[in-house]
Amino acid sequence: MFNKDRWKEIIEVLTSNWFRTILTAFGVFWGILILIILLAAGKGLENGIKQDFNGVATNTMFMWTQNTTMAYQGLPEGRRFNFKLEDVELLRQNVPELKIISPRNAQRGPSGVDNVVYGTETGSYRIFGDYPEIILQNPMYVAKGRFINYNDIKEKRKVVVIGDGIRKDLYKEDEEVLGTYLKISGVNFMVVGTYKEKTSNGSNQDSERQIYAPFTSFSQAFNRADNVGWMALTAKDGKSISNLTDKIINTVKKSRKVHPDDERAIGFFDLFRQYNRVETLFSAMRWIAIIVGTLVLISGVIGISNIMLIVVKERTKEIGIRRALGEAPWSIKKQILMESIFLTIISGMTGIITGSLFIYGINALLDSVGPVDMFLNPNVSVGVVAMALIILVVSGLFAGFIPAQSAIKVRPIDALRTE
Questions:
Q1: What does the alpha-carbon distance between residue 6 and residue 336 come to, in Å, rounded to a whole number?
Q2: What residue ranges in 47-108 does DSSP mark as E strands?
Q3: Which residues face 160 on adjacent strands?
Q4: Boundaries of each MacB-like periplasmic core domain copy (predicted)?
Q5: What's the angle, vertex CA 21, arms to CA 16 and CA 26, rounded to 5?
Q6: CA distances to 79, 116, 123, 157, 191 from 219, in Å
Q7: Which residue from 38, 123, 126, 304 lies 20 to 30 Å from 320 (Cα-Cα)?
Q8: Confidence of residue 1 (pLDDT cuts 50, 70, 90)
Q9: What is the radius of gyration, based on Cα positions, of the chain?
Q10: Nearest to 374, CA basis, from 208, 203, 207, 206
């Protein structure tokens, strides 16, 4: 099948009319190229969007209180209420599927008023009162020193962990940060660590410009008692936080004496549901790219099939002579199929190589200009390339099948009469 004479004949047939061969091959080349570029662009967009979820516990929901809209148990409509620390333990007991429950408080100075002082430097920053587990739910890591721990919680230590952006704002370049004191709304806190965000590219004005203090010392310093501003709740592995939402909300409604039918008293944001929507969106985009690329590829394969029919027509006399000399129909059919597959694979591989070089160039450009919002590392997996190769072989077979069938139907006596 792969003897030298046969391949020499294939090359001669395909090179006898260079312009026609190139135009024919362009359809398959363009189809594969479009498929690769669309998939790579979709992957780059997906990587960029998912970058914002990097380090975030996606199986998480956030819950806060709002005004009640229904009277209940003698309490009026429009009542403002707060979660309490006892609600945290209540949730642990009633919703064992929860892995992390982080009660949180926060404050920020009045607009235009700096609430943090270090030496002669001042700034306005958001201060959080948190438990140590919050670092497992937020996209950040300790850059220097340590994060808050349960000894800090137990002893109500006035310590804080500051973002690297605050360090740049308030401290000199080589100044030691750990062990220094910040005056936050008139209360001194010692800096025990600095953090960086896993997803930050520095473009956000508030990037790495937040302060974390132990929940207990924050509550004591700023008169929050046992009130909880909101909670971050993460479900255990294998459990969906979306499926636990009703159970969680009903538990705290009962604790806070909120009417069971009051849908507005407790607000929440389901991060897991939003993440799943993103996953669904990009899955749909991948299928759209595959369908569009495949349709373009099919048009190219049809073009190859049509040209091969023309080639068979031009070679009618040659085929008749070969049949008259005793060449088997399968040998002629195999010759046409090999020509079709060879042309399809060569044009397709050229498209794959061109697409790979294009993706390499885009990544090199992104590396040189720095991070681009919502677009990161466009690429195509090896599996996609392998699938493209399989598609090329199958396409080549289909493209050559009809011309090959046409070739073996030629009667030698009719072919010899052809001018």
A1: 11
A2: 60-65, 83-84, 98-107
A3: 191
A4: 21-249
A5: 165
A6: 23, 17, 21, 11, 18
A7: 304
A8: very low
A9: 34
A10: 203
